[in-house]
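Changelog note: in this version the structure field was regenerated for every chain. One regenerated record is shown below for reference.
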Amino acid sequence: MNEHFLGQWAVIDIETTGVNPGQDDIIDVGFLKFDGLELVEEFQSLINYEYELPEFIKQLTGIKEKELKLAPSQKTVFNKLSELEGYSLLAHNADFEKSFLEDVIPEANYVDSLFYLPILFPEIKSLKLENWIVDFNLADQEIHRGFEDSVDLLKTVLLTTYLIKESKFDDLFIQSIWKKYLNNNFWQMFNSLEQEELVYISKQIKFNLEDVANNYLTSKAQKATNFRDDIEDYLGEYQFNGQAIESLLKDQKYMEQFIDGYHVRDQQVQMAQRVGQTFAHNLHALVEAPTGTGKTIGYLLPSILYAKEKGEQVLIATATKTLQKQITEKDLPIVDQIFASYKDYKVVKLIGTNNHFCELSFRNLDDDLFESEDIQWAKLYFENLFNNNKNSENLITTEDVPYVLKMKSESFSTLLESLKVDYRTCIGKNCPHKMDCSYIKGISDAKDADIVITNHALMFSWPQSIPMPRKVIIDEAHKLEGSVTSSYTQEFFTKDLEYFATNIISGRRLGSLKYLIKVLSFKIEEDFDQNLKDFSDAITNHFENLTDKIELYFKSKQRFSDTYWNESLFENKKESISNQTELEILNSIDSLNFVFQTMSKYFERFKVFKEQISFNDNEKLLAWNNCEFLINRIDDTSLFFNNILHDDDDLNYTLSYHHKYGSKLNIEPIDCGKLLKEVLLDKIDSSVSTSATIGIGQKNKAPLGIQWNTGQLYLDPQKRFKSDLSLPPLFDYKNKAKVFICSDTPYFNTPEFIPTVLKDVAKLIKQTNGKSLLLFSSKVRFNLACDFLFKYFDQDYSLFIQGMGANVVDEFKKSSKGVLVGLESFGEGIDIPGKQLQFVFIDKIPDLRQDLVIKKRREFFQRNFGNEFEDYFMASRERTLLQKLGRLLRTLDDYGGAIVVDSRLAKWKQHTKNKFFKNLYPYVVEETKLEDACKKVSEFLTKF
């Protein structure tokens, strides 16, 4: 090979004792040095380190302290690294390497694969190196060693580049946009390598690139056709009635073809029949479906049968992306096979407008020769994203964009926000890009779907262009209070005022308005520019005064925090205010309200432009899309300031301040149940609200708190079942689960809590050979616990820590003596069936958030319904604890023990404790000392 235009470059990776280059040290480094296409050197070395190595780093890397003590000195290794001066250094998240090496190799050009890989595969949601090497079958996991990770990174960029070149169309397109936006950038040159050159590099690192690429493509093709061919046709006729549904679910031989380990469950049959009854009689129902019921299949089967037989759509709404993914990727393929001999039905996943990208807005972006490389890269990314959406069934939406890209690039984050679809400015079928628009495609597909799957948020902001389905399944109903709150909270960050101050006198939004004024011969006053400047100056002046006063107000409070959000009620009546700073804040908001009301009226006249523009005139349409966005933002802000100055007893008004994020104003609903009834239940015929932890239990009536927040309490009694349905537990909780709550421990916020509690718990874990999940409700306790456990356990035990990789749960499942550690939210979404998990530890009884709106809700509940403490406050805590305990038993054969510690329990009244324990049904709960609880769990587990 001749000298190549790539020049001198290297792939490098380092391992360190931490993430702070001012405090931490490099302990391991590896690189592969190239001159053009030629590999000229491989280097790997540990670096001498005389101090105690953090236990987390030992676990992550496998490096031992004795190895570091025998390693070459830092000076020796750094002298070697200095030979890379002037090289292009390829690294994954190169900012990290740069932060530790910029003094060692100051003249290097750091090249980040984080900004290369998503250009090639914009549909991949995670940019962690481990995800790429696992998903592309390069390795089972990331090694977390300098040289090995350098090799894996090089394999990744070689393979992904090679795969793109398998499609000549994709290859030519990506090369063309690289030249358009970032010509002569290192990645542009790397991307222009021929397949033969990529293979040549690969052979030098003993990587069979062609075979790996072919295997990947073959595997991908097989996954696309993974339906079984040996399905027996179901001999019965699918009908929408209780007998047909029961017959199908009780056909063991037929159903076990599709569901591994399938067994007939009366609970699932009852669930499916209640769904059918609810739809057939236009009622609303609450259904508690405990773990193991198979509730997703339980509501999918009758929903599909109803939709096809009656010709009506059914909407399925869930709260989390995890469950949406489970429904579409796991449960629906099973249902497709169950209904293999049934007539076709159509299921569509619908997401909100704000989750889609607008190509019209992208094509309307200004081009500036002096734009930064950061902005050019962001444009390059979106150019290929829109191309991907033209040529793929898997449309990329905002939720698919890796979060790290938003964090790494402010320009990228800003551009992303500006490209989100706004349904008010969307010109729909008149858009020149309508054939490739994920938003318009989604709306079109949803119109003739039998089943529409969405989230709670979109259910509450349903698109006006399609009718709302009259039959609705609301999964994860225990989260409805939070979903209603987030959907109907009006929030305004004061930093957004800067946007208006700059965009009404400059920027492309205003430039588009001036263009339309000119080409449409619209008459404006001579002092138009001066009026805009006056608006901008007024906003700037009030913004600066407002932010200063809010900061002063909160910092004067005794309980001010510079770490968390500070919150205070916002008083919008001057006569009720005695504090001078509060009065000045209100005056500033009042003044801003006047400014935006005036601006809204001032810009109102330009709305006629929409009617004057031909839908065949793309240039004017692009301009209108821009200026309508600005006009809508002004109207929205005007409405917000008007609302926050309007007193409404059903709303909670708050002012918040954060040292990092600035200040904001909130308007939040208090009576979520009434609001849910008005915006949803009154507009549909029937609904089934279901969850594993509603808290109905043996009472056949949900707690008043859950009835309130699901809107059931406001329904006409004739519109709901006389009793709520609580399906009996599937598992033998009495004999196969032991739950202990202990109060003889230090308070959880004290320094001695972790060492005192984990001393006994870790001993228990050793006795039971791992198989444990530990959940902590604060990051501080989580970190302290990890440090303690690393030091306590020897090398026979493997710790799996949340954040240590995308596959940490899967790795835990495979381990012989594993301990899984995470934050409390981690414990609500993981499924670990079988003997691999037999013990769960929870660091405290969950609390209900103490936001001011929660306080208002508790007061409201007490005034209107009764005992808020038991039926709202405690019931919410019980449901959250049940979610965590739900990790314990996942199959009929599972067994295990759980320990919850909380010193506050010792101060509870006996009546409260008794009711709390009773409401944790179906678990049998015992209060005891921690030492005794550990002994009892150990004895219990040895019986099996």
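Spot check on this record: The first strand starts at residue 8 and ends at 16. Confidence is low (pLDDT under 50) at residues 226-236.
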